[in-house]
Amino acid sequence: MSGGAHVAVSRKIEAAAEPLQGEVGRIDATGIALAILNRFRNAWRTVLILVPYFWLFLFFLVPFGIVLKISLAEAVIARPPFTPLLEWVDGTVLEIRITFDNFLFLIEDALYWTGYLNSLKLATISTICCLLLGYPMAYAIARASKTMRNIYLMMIILPFWTSFLLRIYAWMGMLNNNGVINNVLSWIGLIDEPIGFMHTEFAVFLGITYSYLPFMILPLYANLERMDLSLHEAAMDLGSRPMRVFFDVTLPLSMPGIIAGSLLVFIPATGEYVIPALLGSPDNLMIGRVLFDEFFSNRDWPVASAVAIVLLFVLVAPIMFFQHYQMKEAEEGKA
Amino acid sequence: MRRRSTFTFSMLCFGFAFLYIPIFSLIFYSFNKSRLATVWGGFSTKWYGELFQNELIIDAALLSLRIAAVTATMAVILGTMAGLALARLGRYRGRTLFAGMVMAPLVMPEVITGLSLLLLFVSLEEMIGWPAGRGATTITIAHITFSMAYVAVIIQSRLSSMDDSLEEAAMDLGSRPFRVLWDVTLPIISPAMVSGWLLSFTLSLDDLVIASFVSGPGSSTLPMVIFSKVRLGVTPDINALATIIILVVSTGVLLAGILMHRQEQRRLRDEQMAYSD
Fold first, then answer.
1. What pLDDT was estimated at residue A22?
2. Nearest CA in chain A to B91
């Protein structure tokens, strides 16, 4: 495709430079037409690839380049609120203006450090909790009868479909000072004063675990369900105790599911905005919230972009790992 | 063996309680007469009535539904193309980058996607004058972009779990590739396309962060309106709204799930009969 564009461009230049050589242009055009005709037999194949390719390229890949560009600009009070990187000085000299001030600013200000570290910490704890709760659940579902399995799976998937925002909101009703949990506890007589669950780190971590639990269970289930049970039987027949069979056979075999589930929880949880905004306090800095506020409250686009670039940098290793894994799974599924 | 299965089963029950108690309590309190959202003051449906008089919420809901319908349709078209391109077209130049671009939106933090798309729209407007301002169009484009990734993954996994013997058979019988795609492959993946459409629809209906970045003045989606209200605390009318949304979505998903399950059973039966003949 780019070859065709290249030919078209060079033809334009030729035509502009030497109008007398129209002949050459025409021959070239026939050649292109023939090539297109030849290609047309496989055109649907090309379309199938190129249309989504182009869409993702324009709306997913290019935007990252722009974020990088703006993170190197200076903030100004204007529309848009940043300086251009390339500018014509006196109409002759192209001046490139790049500044790393935004990144230096991130390093110097403890707020951002705390934000990144807190996000990583909360995401890690929540991932571990999702795993500890999700693994036995996925295991129980995978070993249930076929009918029950479908019902359980539906029950796991259903909350995943219903609104994320509203499920977090539901926790606000649970954790409030006069919320469900405090009401129940004081009704039993365990507490006299309501416990302030809301606006704590605990609430944020509970919210993340709650929202991302299905993401952990589904890949784990997929893995455990197709595990070959003859290995377990062999281990049992050889006299291993159930606990040993679990740690020596089941757990190592389910590693792909554990990794896929953990990454599906960890990566988005690190950049989470809604959960800390609703359940956390302004003191529980999470980097997603810092970015959001930097952008909307401070209107500092370059610093917000720099925050995003650094976050992407932090997450690039897990993201690459996830992709590598997904692709391997997809290839294996085909074989 | 028995002891551990008791353990996993009780964890399963605990997990389901954890997943469902907040939702049920929310539904319960939506019928609360009291203005204090979590103090029971008797049964009432007055908050539902109030909800339907709130024009701000109705308008936002209509906008969100419109965006979600367009998003889902476009995402299924683009996502199916991407899924087919990944699962059935073999190797071609740039396939790795393509696969990467399809997978990445699944895990990309929303704040990054939202910010980067907004900056793209601003830059595009400066360069070519499109899109003029931000609103429903830019939200729809953003939603299509992340929804099509979900659709592509659903389609791809459906295609890789099916062996391509049916397609090969059609090919051997002399069908042209395009006819094979149209007559054999598409019917096979049609349940996946339906799930993809439903998932895109709900994802779009639910998105707050990305929409906040790429929306403009006067185009507040339903989640944006809900968010600005609930930031200040639990309110009974949002409880009512949440109940409606949750009930409608779960009924839809359950119905679709049952229907597709039946169809799948029938298809499997047909296939088995075809083999045994």
1. 41
2. A49
For B184, residues 6+ apart whose C-beta sits below 8 A from its C-beta are: B166, B167, B170, B175
Alpha-helical runs (H) found in chain B: 2-29, 46-51, 55-87, 95-107, 110-128, 136-161, 165-172, 177-180, 186-206, 209-214, 222-230, 236-276
Residue with tokens 């932090």, as numbered in its chain: A314
| Beta-bridge partner residues of A94 | A88
pLDDT surpassing 70 at residue B73: yes
Q: How far apart are CA A302 and CA A285, in angstroms?
A: 20
Number of A to B CB contacts under 8 A, please give it.
Answer: 268
Which H or E element spans position A87? strand A86-89
Residues 223-252 of A with CB under 8 A from B: 242-243, 246
Which tens digits make up the pLDDT trace of A274-311?
999 999 888 778 899 889 888 888 888 888 999 999 99
Please name the residue that has the structure tokens 């930031």.
Answer: B231
Q: Which two tokens stand for residue A333?
A: 């599924």
Q: Among A15-24, A83-92, A221-230, name the most confident range.
A: A221-230
pLDDT digits over B4-15, tens only? Answer: 578 888 999 999
Contacts of B38 in chain A (CB under 8 A): 173, 176, 178-180, 183
Q: Is B249 on the interface with A (CB under 8 A)?
A: yes
Of A174, A178, A334, Cβ closest to residue B22 = A174
Other beta carbons within 10 angstroms of residue B67's beta carbon come to 27
Element (H, E) at A306: helix A301-334
Decide if A133 touches B, using CB distance below 8 A: yes
Asked if B145 contacts A62 with a C-beta cutoff of 8 angstroms, the reply is: no
Q: How far is CA A198 from CA A113, A205, B11, B30, B254, in A?
A: 24, 11, 26, 20, 33
Residue B22: which of A139, A170, A327 has the nearest Cβ?
A170
Residue-by-residue DSSP string for B221-251: -HHHHHHHHHTT---HHHHHHHHHHHHHHHH
pLDDT band at B143 (very low <50, low <70, confident <90, very high): very high
Residues in chain B: 277
**C-beta atoms of B245 and A270 within 8 A:** no
* ipTM of the complex, rounded to two decimals: 0.87
Nearest to A304 among B14, B115, B202 (CB): B115
The pLDDT of residue B188:
84
Residue A23 pLDDT class (50, 70, 90 cuts): very low
Token reading at A218 = 């589904």
Q: Does B86 touch chain A (CB under 8 A)?
A: yes
Q: Are A256 and A321 in contact (CB under 8 A)?
A: no
> Which residues make beta-bridge pairs with B32?
B43
Per the listing, tokens 């259903």 go with A158
The architecture that CATH gives domain A103-334 is Orthogonal Bundle (1.10)
CATH 1.10.3720.10 location in chain A: 103-334
